[in-house]
Amino acid sequence: MISTRFVLKRLLLLVPVLVGVASLVFAVLHLSPGDPALTIAGERASEEFVQQVRESLGLNDPIWVQYGRFLANAAQFEFGESFIIQRNTSVREVLTNKLPVTLELAIYGQLIGIFLGIPLGILSAVKQDSFTDHTTRIGALAGISVPIFWSGPLLILLFAQTLGWLPTSGRISVLYNVEAIRVTGLVTVDTLLAGEWEMFVSAARHMILPASVIGIYSMALISRMMRSSMLEVIRQDYMRTARAKGQGAKITVLKHGFRNAMIPVITVIGIQFGGLLGGAVLTETVFAIGGIGTLLVEAIKVGDYPIVQGTVLTFAFLFTLVNLGVDITYSILDPRIEQ
Amino acid sequence: MSQDGNNVSRRRFLSAAGTAAATAALAGCTGGGNGDETTTEGGNGGGDATETETEGGDGGDDGSPQVLRYGRGSHSPTLDFQNSTSGEVAKVTEQLYDTLINFEPGQSTLTQGLATEYSLEGQTASITLREGVTFHNGEEFTAEDFVATYRRFVDSDYEYYGGDDYVSAYGPFTLGAWIDEIQVDGDYSMTIQLTQTYAPFLRNLAMFAAAVHSKAAIEELGTDLNKNPVGTGPFQLENLDDANELIRLSANTDYWGDGPNVDEVVFVTIGQNSTRAQSLASGELDIIDGLGAQSSIQVENASNADLVRTEGINIGYMAFNMASREEFRDKRVRQAVSYAINTEAIVNEIYSGFATQASQPLPPNVLGHNTDLDPYPYDPEQARSLLEEAGYGDGFSFELATFQNPRGYNPSPIQTAETVASNLGDVGIEVDINQQSFGPFLEYTAQGRHDACFLGWYTDNADPDNFMYVLLHPQVEEDQLTDGQDWVSFDTEGYNTSNRSAWANQEYMDLVEQGQSTYDESERESLYFEANQIAHDEAPWVYLDYADELRGVSTRVSGFQIAAISGPYLNLVTLE
């Protein structure tokens, strides 16, 4: 069982991490060149106009005042209004819009990775040095090596343009007004909740290519990790003992081996999923799915400080939460870890 | 602008077409970080609908709505034209709102909008408004709406003023600085008193930023208008989907003007140019804009789309900072550099022919563009002899500041800078390239810290003053100028930092000031002819290019009018 104390201790550890990240983001943004007031005002603005903007945003205040204000607001998850990307819209609203986009892609991508990667890894380990093993390993290597900005357009070219089976980009056909049925922000879920079958099919078809691109990469990593971890476990004494007691090979691997081999795999899945929550920027870009990653890159490019701060902190928060989830999973798989 | 510029340039691509669609598509994507990025300026595009249509995009015949899908590179940061200077904002607000005066579709001439009569005499503009126009909220349009809109934009004493962190710089730039007072004479008549005689004023009224809000909506919604637009335009907002970066508009059946001919318009955001072009080719979009060279080739290769182009009203240039470098104060050095840079190669090779060589500050299709002037030819010999004459035969070195991201008028800034460096290296001038992202770059150069820099300009109102006065006039008081010196320091009081050259040529300034206050068109034209001649000879800039406007348009679209200013005129579009 997981003790509350264990979880609380981990949760408390989040605080210094988040304060550290917040301070770092603040420092980096304020040390980097570029004046947000000038960016907002644009090329047509007079110096007087830029000064007005600077004043109204509090950018003339001493840096420690700005820092204090930022930390106090960040503690309430309040980052002010976007400067440029969504003019005068609260960062919280922007993130609420964008987070489900990223979350949906990450979930489907990771699910594909897990459901393909784990069985392939096990198969590869059990049949070490066989044809299956070599094929899987080469496949995995290719999966890791092929960059998404190459495989993405190639898939679009094949499945969307040449064969015409799947759409090229976006999350759902633009003919459907998915905003009107928004509940969770996950289009595949919202369309089902609304009972809109045709819309669901459109959303699912749009998800196939981007989720596969992420899934293939994820599968490659997971299967490699699963294979090596399982190979180690297979050679353990308790495995031999189980076999010696007369237990079948399959049962031994799946019952005794699997659970123990999963610990490093969970780590990989956790890190990967955490990373995906920060946005699969390349995939989002290629398939025109504007999630949190694209938002962050865009915000950095145009100097939208509130969005950068809000996004990075959200990302840090989610990442640490995923790590907490990983830790909890560890302790379920191996209760000794909790100690 | 000339309609014969709207040619579809298939021939130009014959050689490139041989590389097949796959190569083009892949090159487009892998080049993503460079020249194929989205530019915020520029136009719309065309698209195509293929046989392999994956989504039902048609509609109409079976009673389902006809939906026009317009693909572009960035989502609108706001739906309020007073809230941003971005061209992306204008594309949508032009559908939702009307201005008093319009640009003729595809032209730079003016025509009636919400005003049926307009005139400018001395410092007085008289305007008669159209009767019987209603806003999307059912309110009738009157002069009071214009006054409330104006005050919301520039008058900080007004109860419904947008706020300093809300209103865009277009408030003072196009209206506030020139308007002294607005007198309302009944519901449909207004007299606007200007602060000075100002020839571009009526053109400023045609800009997207001078559109008209409903007074009732201003009072009811305040700054929430940036998500809930209430205009008089051909389309009204159906749904703003920031999560999916879609904007859905529906036809305003009570529209006073032409069209609309489709039931709905959806603005779709696809950041990557190549993906956007592929979406057009697979029939998921009807019109696309923001095309780079590679994605234009994709559109060309699509069987069901056309690449439509026209001359843009813009300029890309390299400015010499005369305030910071003594060498650049010698006209012969500036001319030498102009001769030494192979702008023809830059335009044809680096910009893939989607631009023309520039010869003067004013692009074609704007009053006062001097057709007698030719671009500086590539002539290193002439450059060397001019440098010799000026006493710089042994060369010198300078820093060239450039932005990194492509802009419409300079789609490959780094490559252009490298070409300039290489060309100048041939005549003994060493160039040190200083590349920065656009925000910091603007700040750096506005402070005059550069030796030379790239920059460019897209017109606001297609008036010569918008280039000649805005970009090359120092705008300082007379007593700040030194006799016999044709430059000023960047820290001079009131200095116009858009003049990145620090150029202050008295003769040019006099002509441009006269042009600003002269209302007779032919007289104005000759003033700008002369001013352009001076700017060409004195060479405060190296004139690089005028970039074309490119759109990808599906063959199922008809009536689409490519426009270098204002638009897109989606109310005129019909779908098959």
From TrEMBL, chain A:
Biological-process GO terms, alphabetical: transmembrane transport
Subcellular location(s) of the protein: Cell membrane
PROSITE patterns recorded: ABC_TM1 (PS50928)
Transmembrane residue ranges: 105-126, 138-160, 203-222, 265-292, 312-333
SUPFAM superfamilies according to UniProt: MetI-like (SSF161098)
InterPro entries named in the record: BPD_transp_1_N, MetI-like, MetI-like_sf
Pfam family membership, one: BPD_transp_1_N
ABC transmembrane type-1 domain ranges (all copies): 99-330
PANTHER family referenced in this protein's UniProt entry, alphabetically: DIPEPTIDE TRANSPORT SYSTEM PERMEASE PROTEIN DPPB-RELATED
Name assigned to this protein: ABC transporter permease subunit
Species in which this protein is naturally found: Haloferax marinum
From TrEMBL, chain B:
Polar residues composition bias: residue spans: 75-85
Stretch list, region Disordered: 26-85
An annotated GO cellular component: ATP-binding cassette (ABC) transporter complex
Entry coiled-coil feature ranges: none
Keyword Secreted (UniProt): no
Molecular function per GO: peptide transmembrane transporter activity
Keyword Transport: yes
Family matches, as SUPFAM superfamilies: Periplasmic binding protein-like II
Keywords: Signal, Transport
Protein name: ABC transporter substrate-binding protein
Species this chain originates from: Haloferax marinum
